[in-house]
Amino acid sequence: xxxxxxxxxxxxxxxxxxxxxxxxxxxxVLKNCIRAFLVGxxxxxxxxxxxxxxxxxFGFDEKTAGSPTVAVLxxxxxxxxxxxxxxxxxxxxxxxxxxxxxxxxxxxASAAIEHRTEGxxxxxxxxxxxxxxxxxxxxxxxxxxxxxxKVVIKMLGGV
Length: 159
What we know:
There is one protein chain. By secondary structure, the chain is mainly alpha-helical. It has one domain. The protein has 8 helices and no strands. The chain has helices spanning 3-8, 11-23, 29-57, 66-82, 85-93, 95-98, 101-114, 120-155. The longest helix is centred in the C-terminal third of the chain and has 36 residues, at 120-155. It is extended. It starts with a helix and ends with a helix.
């Protein structure tokens, strides 16, 4: 708690804050970081392996192999979410599953599964995009801004 907020508390509240802080379990930060690094790395390695398969067996080049690779990773994430496996992996790995595209797919699939009893339009569709909407909006907006900057730089004779 910041010192400003600490000063606004009564002495009893400050005493309780100290009491609670002393009994709060210590978070294993290093262990959590290692787990996140390992699982995130494994997900990315699987993605790289899929990309290699698409390039060597299906005739994609390096630029075009990315799209089917992401599609397969999203499909696997949604499948594992629907089977309840992804949640156990995420519980163990923490942010390692949230950062890759699979975490985004898991978030959308979880919301859809959770609200399916409310119907497809208002339940699944509405609640799925409550979570995914901001990510999509800011992603599209960022892409728009970057493309405008690129066009302006090209018009001025740059790269």
